[in-house]
Write a structure and sequence with these properties.
Layout lengths: L4 H37 L4 H16 L5 H20 L1
């Protein structure tokens, strides 16, 4: 237990941030799974891709993931969609 008021406040803030970040990370993972599933089924169209890109960008903007990580996720999804369309 914190004895100093500022340490107690920091603990409360960290808990809120942790909750927010977990929710954002969960939304991101769900969007990625949905996109990958659609691509695997051959239903990976532009709307699916743009929805997942949007979720990735939101996570990057909020600092849940880094910008380069977001770019890597988007690149891999785009490449997988392109490969699936070619088949």
């Amino acid at each position: 237990m914190a004895n100093i008021r500022s340490a107690e406040k920091q603990r409360r803030q960290a808990e809120k941030a942790n909750t927010r970040n977990r929710a954002g990370k969960s939304r991101l993972r769900s969007a990625l799974k949905k996109a990958k599933g659609a691509i695997a089924e051959g239903k990976g169209d532009q709307s699916t891709l743009s929805a997942s890109f949007s979720e990735i960008d939101k996570a990057a903007k909020k600092g849940i993931i880094k910008t380069n990580t977001a770019d890597r996720y988007k690149s891999r999804l785009a490449r997988a969609t392109k490969r699936a369309a070619a088949k």
